[in-house]
UniProtKB/TrEMBL annotation:
UniProt signal peptide: none
Listed name of the protein: Bifunctional dihydroflavonol 4-reductase/flavanone 4-reductase isoform 1
Listed Pfam families: TMEM33_Pom33
Any one annotated GO CC term: chloroplast
Biased composition (Low complexity): 70-90, 99-113
Family to which the UniProt record says this protein belongs: Belongs to the PER33/POM33 family.
Region span, Disordered: 70-113
UniProt-annotated location(s): Membrane
Organism: Theobroma cacao
Biological process annotations from GO: regulation of DNA-templated transcription
Membrane topology: Multi-pass membrane protein
Main location: membrane
Superkingdom per UniProt: Eukaryota
Length: 345
């Protein structure tokens, strides 16, 4: 009976292993949204695990995907072989006891395998709830008819919510430093400093602690929240009548235009840097915030998750500004060259 129940799952696993993932455009999008440490992304067992998760989500929902284990397949095969040999050599009285123990062990392993799945589901639900709340609060902050005091409070709450969401995502994916000493903390920060969640966490801290109220800064927050909400709705509510009637088209548009949203965010982030530079000549200037934000822009320029968009925007700015400097203000060539060397360093 146990073998009959396992046979369909064996066939499903064989089908999942034989599936052509490279020619499925959904796999590339799915894998690009998996945030795992670089040393794990190159492991074949990790890639195979997420391929089975992809196959379960998009091809065959009945496929059972077990949690990743640290033991090797050869090690896990030895106990199963020995247990099968011992069960074959046992007498008729021992067989019911072996069957009962097998059922209990399989039930235990199934329960253990379902725990990480429920944890991941809970994490996704928490992220969806926080980002949906951030999106509503941010829209409330930029709506022109909202009272000024309520708008300012919603403005700061949207940054706080995004900071909490980013920090929770970093903790869920990377955990804590292995030890609370300088070397371990330095290694930990080197692993997370180029991630999108860390960049947004610093971005939110930069504005939530400032007395300036730049509604323009909410554009990247809105784009990030919109992407998270749309992906969660498409993956978990695609069979809902309410979703298919009112939300499917907007969610499909968001998922098919993530590049457009990223380009919009990069334009807004660079525009904020220029606004902060101009604010230095007003009574609302904040030199520390401006310096910190330009360091963040430099990180965005070099980090792989945002480099393509920021480098494209800066290239457009250079094509416009450089000819004007050479023609009308050649004395600025030396300081501009020094700034470029610092920026590219």
């Amino acid at each position: 009976m146990g073998e009959e129940r396992e046979d369909p799952q064996k066939l499903k696993r064989i089908g999942a292993a034989a599936y052509d993932y490279e020619n499925d455009p959904r796999w590339a999008d799915y894998w690009s949204n998996i945030l795992i440490p670089p040393h794990m992304a190159s492991r074949s067992d990790v890639i195979d695990h997420f391929k089975r998760k992809f196959y379960q989500r998009y091809i065959d929902p009945d496929l059972v995907v077990e949690a990743m284990s640290s033991s090797s397949p050869s090690q896990s095969a030895k106990p199963s072989a020995s247990s099968s040999a011992s069960s074959a050599a046992a007498n008729d009285q021992a067989r019911p006891r072996n069957a009962g123990s097998t059922a209990r062990s399989s039930g235990t392993s199934a329960a253990a395998g379902s725990i990480p799945t429920s944890v991941r589901w809970d994490r996704q639900t928490i992220q969806f709830s926080v980002n949906a709340w951030v999106f509503i609060v941010a829209v409330l902050a930029i709506f022109p008819l909202v009272p000024r005091s309520l708008s300012n409070r919603a403005y700061r709450l949207s940054f706080m919510g995004t900071a909490c969401s980013s920090l929770y995502s970093l903790y869920a994916l990377y955990g804590r430093p292995r030890a609370w000493n300088l070397q371990a903390v330095q290694v930990y920060f080197q692993s997370i400093i180029a991630t999108k969640d860390f960049i947004y966490f610093i971005y939110c801290l930069t504005f939530v602690t400032s007395h300036l109220c730049l509604k323009f800064a909410l554009i990247p927050i809105l784009c990030r929240a919109l992407e998270h909400v749309a992906k969660f709705l498409r993956r978990n509510f695609n069979r809902s009548t309410l979703y298919r009637k009112y939300l499917e088209d907007p969610c499909v548009w968001v998922e098919s235009n993530t590049t457009t949203l990223s380009i919009l965010s990069s334009h807004a982030e660079i525009g904020l840097g220029l606004l902060l530079m101009m604010s230095l000549f007003s009574w609302q200037r904040n030199i520390i915030q401006t310096f910190m934000y330009w360091q963040l822009l430099k990180l965005m320029y070099h980090a792989p998750v945002t480099a393509g968009y920021h480098q494209s925007v800066w290239a457009k700015i250079g094509r416009i500004v450089n000819p004007l400097v050479h023609r009308y203000a050649p004395f600025l060539n030396t300081p501009v060259s020094a700034i470029q060397r610092w920026w590219l360093r």
